[in-house]
Amino acid sequence: MDFLIGWIAIIPSYATPLLLASLGLIICEKAGVLNLGAEGLMAVGAMTGAVTVLSGADPWFGLAAGSAAAMALALLFGISTVALRANHTLAGLAVVAIGLGITGVVGRPYVQKTFPGIPNLGDLFGIDRSSAFGRILAVQDPVTLALPILVGALWWWISKSRHGLRLRSVGENPAAADVAGIDVQLVQFGAVLASGLLCGLAGAYLSVATSHVWVEGMVASRGWIAVALVIFSRWNAARALWGALLFGSADALVPRLQAIGADVPVYLMMTLPYVLTLVVLVAGSMSGRRSGEPAFLGRVYLRQDKQ
Amino acid sequence: MKERNTKPSASARLFAATAAVLASCAASGAYAFTLEGAPKVAFIYASSAQDGGWNEALEAGRKAVEEQLKVPVAVTENIPEEATKLRAAIDLYVKRGFNIIIGTTYGYSAPMAEAAKAYPNVAFLSASGTENGPNMESFYARTYQGWYLAGIAAGQATKTKKIGILAGFPVGVVNWDINSFALGARSVDPAIETVAVFANSWWDPVKEGQIAQAILDQKADVLATNLSATSALDAAEKAGVPSVGFQLDMSHAAPKTIQTSVVFRWEKYLVPTIKEIIDGSWKPEEFGAFEGLETGVVELAPFGPTVSEETKAKIEAAKQDIIAGKLDPFQGLLKKQDGTVVVDAGGKVDDAALWSMDYFVDGVIGTMPAK
Amino acid sequence: MLDTAFLVRRQNPGFLLTSLSYAGGLLVGLTVSAMLLVHAGVPASALVDEFLIATFLTSDGLSQTATAALPLVLVGLASAVAMRVRFWNIGVEGQLWLGAIASTWVALNGIGPEALRLPTMFVLAALAGAAWIAISLFLKLRWGVNEVISTLLLGSVAFLLVQHLLFGVWRDPANSFPVTATFPEASWFSILGWGQLHTGIFLVAGIALSIWFVMEHSRAGFYADAVGFNAKAALATGLPVLRTAVGLVLLSGALSGVAGMMIVAGTEHRLNQSVGNGYLFSAIVIAYLARAKPLWVIVVSFALGAVFTAGNVLKVFYSISEAMIVLMQGTVLMSILMAQFFSTYSLKRPN
């Protein structure tokens, strides 16, 4: 029972950054812009968040600063892909390189310096930890708590609202959207910036909320997992929540099995999140559901191409 | 490997066989070497030198060499553990007249040995390396001695009789730290159990913080980290749990709760060794340099505020016993996690068996990955 | 946004315009990089002396570049042949690890007669790489699972498999470090006597020329370009397009596998945890910049090899960090990408 409570309590700290980044990528890709740059955007968010807090700012401000800095890098991505029609895959990889590179260069003096992070609910509200529920709730932070609301809102916004319809139409059929009077480039720019905001927040969450320290390379491929989660979730915000929880719980399980001395092949166990994701994908396809991939994802729209 | 048991294990024989080949050119066990040209020293790191841990500890040694020996010292960072890239860096240095090259990770060891054969007049020192030769010496410290003392501190501090340690990968030099930590704690109270978890990375503060929580959830009330990132210590400080750091004095990460840190003082090895190389009196050890508390290459950082006088006295006594050779952390009777006997009473684990240590001792709760 | 002017795709951009925009992008990227380096404390004069001369005009520099380029050519080709049939192989590193595992297994266990050791390693590495990508291919063909995600995930699985072996059966018994024993010399490509360059270069040259022939002078290349990887359309045409596409995807995996063999048998002579890192980024960049043309893959691979050599010089003598080099690579790539705009599109005002 203790094992279960401890495990459940820690899952959100694994899932939150993955989910935040995936949500950003979903918005971006719904508008037809394939974004493989999450790793770089998260790195910028993580470094900026940490440096901001180390310079004496409030941790909450650190999260905001991380988002803003990643938005700046996303702007460059937007200029290359949306305005200059560069290949999305390559521009995404360039964003990864620039993000990882610039954080290493700029953040060098700030490595390994601990700072205060954001408080958890236990600190904020003095939650009673005697019950299992209390124990789980007390170690969560406000960002994690707000996530289900964000997921719900995004899901509604994308699939039900008028703006969401515009966003989707740009990703599905930009020519038709154009005819309907939607400014395709403007919508795509907005979506790219949103991905910068959320990926930056995800990165800043890693440094400011989870580990209270910044080191080079600390995103450690979590951005790539987020890219995979988007496909896993079939570009659906609600399903991304389950995906992140599934991935996070598998990831959180391995060290906990070691801690009780379970006799398991650890490295093979660590393939579990990846294998599970593939299995769920296959199961989804077998039941004949659409992949949900926006029809125009990763392609370049020109007005002359419209039919 | 200065002292060896009379009954060598399989791996000790392996060591000896390798050494016999390498030593064929030397007279009596140790090699002789003369440096050509003015001494110029170069350090090559696999990642950033300012990493707040392993590299930074070596960096302190480098600075001491520069200041005390007044020789030019160059630094290169981020050379990956790949033969081509390391060799290219070494070639560049040698071309520019650098003749004392220090590599800083075990992954450099084999390519460095190849370079050492190609450049017989250049001296190579390999941190946590595995290869030795007429102009190459690997060096590491008996970190397990420090971890034994840290284990005593943890054993004194625990109330739940359960302590925890977070580590990187299951390699010999890490396994002996875990085991020795557990044995040190058991020297205080044989009922103490040690939870050990491998992070499967050397460098992921996010994961390290999360694993620290996993260990604390097992009711461990002392948390040690064998890794560099501060996030585990930060988690311990938050939980009000005594902690132990590694590599550098980590008290900045947990000023209230830290007990001590097991630290490297590489200058105690590097300064005299490089001085010998320059003087022409250097004789690389057949099995590499492997010093401990006696030379101070490994030691404990100043104790934290919560460590009692009684604990300090116990640690000091054990330290003197280890230096005097009266106590060895891995002396018999030593049992593995599964109860099989490693060494009978009266014996001790020899150096070759230390390096190949791939098991947990009795009293450790944890999983050896890939076993 | 561009209401007063239309953006039009140029029908035939012409060699001059294409080269100019390419060169312009490269120049801007290199200029920004040079400014970054000068800002980081590298004297401007040294940029020419050390960087260009040490890299391109010294024997050591050239042999290092050639050695580094060998696996790059292979992964570049791997990415290129898959790209030609619109299959995004994001798992190049995974297939490379599998190839490295297969060749390590052959080398450590002395499989087959010694004279055939290298050919055995070659064949098994190619098969292992092809088998790894075959999983993604099967998932795509059978259930329509997106190959971006499946190759990416299987790449991570392959790395964990390597760790399982390195910390398990293949660990160095003397010190339990995750490095295999050094291979017997029968499993090494022989050194040619010019730096670390080895006989693997002949294998790479043979492979590259064969692929050039297949892609540019055979029907396979034609089918690949004509239809791409679209199973439905392929079946509808009645041409063996699907078979071609499947063949090229498997070839992509096999090439990555051979790259793994090239690394362990050519320069490392052992397997460790870091030999395969970073090849995915290189593979995609090479294939794209070479526009998936095999001969250009060779050229771009050597250029990237030169960047690695130059990066090494910068690291050694100016303490320039890896991060700075990664940043420069990203900057150059981004500016070339952006510059393509000017040769691909033109702005037309409405009459």
Task: Please give the CATH architecture of the largest domain in chain B.
Answer: 3-Layer(aba) Sandwich
Weakly predicted, low-confidence segments of chain B: 1-29
The proportion of residues forming helix of chain B, as a percent range, comes to: 25-40%
How many distinct domains of chain A? 1
Overall shape of chain A = globular
What Rg of chain A do the Cα atoms give?
20 Å
* Quaternary organisation: heterotrimer
Largest interface chains and counts: A-C, 55 and 50 residues
Number of domains of chain B: 2
In the CATH classification, which architecture of chain A applies?
A: Orthogonal Bundle
Quickly count the helices of chain B: 11
Termini Cα gap of chain A: 62 Å
Strand content of chain B: 15-25%
**Overall number of strands of chain B:** 15
Q: Which class do the helix and strand fractions of chain A yield?
A: mainly alpha
Can you describe this structure?
The complex is a heterotrimer of chains A (307), B (371) and C (351). With 307 residues, chain A is mostly helical. Chain A has a single domain (2-293), classed as ABC transporter involved in vitamin B12 uptake, BtuC (Orthogonal Bundle). Helix content of chain A is 71%, strand content 0%. Chain A has helices at 2-30, 38-54, 59-83, 88-106, 121-125, 132-138, 142-159, 162-172, 174-179, 184-211, 222-232, 237-259, 266-269, 272-286. In chain A, helix 2 crosses helix 10 (184-211) and helix 3 runs antiparallel to helix 10 (184-211). The radius of gyration of chain A is 20 Å and the shape is globular. Chain B is α/β, with parallel strands linked by helices and 371 residues long. Chain B folds into two domains: 10-142 and 266-291, Response regulator (Rossmann fold), CATH 3.40.50.2300; 143-263 and 298-365, Response regulator (Rossmann fold), CATH 3.40.50.2300. Chain B has helices spanning 10-23, 54-69, 83-95, 109-118, 143-157, 172-188, 205-216, 231-239, 267-279, 309-324, 351-355; strands at residues 41-44, 73-76, 100-103, 123-127, 136-141, 162-167, 193-198, 223-225, 243-247, 258-264, 289-291, 298-300, 334-335, 341-343, 364-365. In chain B, helix 2 (54-69) crosses helix 9, helix 3 (83-95) packs parallel to helix 4 and helix 5 runs parallel beside helix 6 (172-188). The longest helix of chain B has 17 residues, at 172-188. Chain B is globular and about 60 Å long. Chain C has a domain at 71-297. Chain C has a two-stranded antiparallel sheet. In chain C, helix 4 (92-109) packs parallel to helix 6 (147-166). Chain C is built from 13 helices and two strands. Chain C is mainly alpha-helical and 351 residues long. The chains are: A mainly alpha (307), B alpha/beta (371), C mainly alpha (351). At the A-C interface, helix 3, helix 4, helix 11 and helix 14 of A face strand 1, helix 6, helix 11 and helix 13 of C.
